[in-house]
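Section 3.1: Structural characterization of target chains.
Under the original work plan, the team committed to producing a structural model for every single-chain target entering the pipeline before any wet-lab resources were allocated. The record below documents one such target. The sequence was received from the expression subgroup and is listed exactly as submitted; it comprises 335 residues.
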Amino acid sequence: MFTGRPYTMWRYAEFLPVFDEKNIVSLGEGWTPILPLKNLSAQLGIREILLKDESVNPTGSFKARGLSVAISKAKELGIEHCIIPTAGNAGGAMSAYAAKAGIRATVIMPKHTPSALKEECRMYGAELILLDGLIDACGKKAKQMAAEIGAFDMSTMKEPYRLEGKKTLGFEIAEQLNWRLPDLIIYPTGGGTGLIGMWQAFKEMQRLGWLTGKLPRMVIVQSKKCNPMIQMFENGTVPETFIPEASIAYGLSVPYPFAKDLIQQVVLESNGTAITVTEEEMEKGIEHIAVTEGLLLSPEGSATYIGLKKLIEKDYAKEDESVLLFNTGSWFKYR
């Protein structure tokens, strides 16, 4: 079906919104490996545990997918200046793709973000603005600046194209696993674009007849310090008493996700669930996966492993099932 196509996410170009291939801005993103975690499977008594390792993407995270498509479409539409609020990785990704496209980039980031993520944006030539608070404060500033200077706002789910790039996760998983999806996908969820994009891809492939079996149960994992979706599932809404804090998993430090209703819809429609992990659990998880599988995961990646352990304890994850975990970024960017 895809014989002769490049092993990047652009092998699925017909499903992406860039009309002229000369406008594609690519750094070789996508087609990241799915690794079998056999030692962990034996330890936990689960038939198959797999890891989709997004840390090998350009700029070291899954954000490359969405920003490659978004910047490509910005180029196609003649946009000259893009602005983005970020907890870290999305800012670096947009800066890199904007640099390649010749588009001006402005990145708004919390002051507490690690220095490596700040320097990355500067190295790519982006204007970097640092603020107190979390990504919601950065989002408000981005919206204000976009209106004032006429830049295009690349905020998560407030433009349509980053979602389309994240959708390629679903196509890749299906193709790499020979069109048989895992029983369970555990996803570290901040803004939720990857989760929503995957589910959209699965639905598109069902309509095409490429997938005939049942779809995976989609599980979201959040940090106890910032868990608005867990609050929403438990209370029906994010309560006014909710006080979010910064997490070591910067991608999970999204206190008020714009796409919260869509995230909830995917979880419910897939018969999935939502689970919380602590900062200490994520730290211990990083160490355990390192000595067990020889892999250094980001805190978000570790969160999916800790989430699986809790799902086994709850008898939600069964021993005869196939489980896919996600590592969304490189451990080296969190130092």
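The chain has twelve helices and ten strands.
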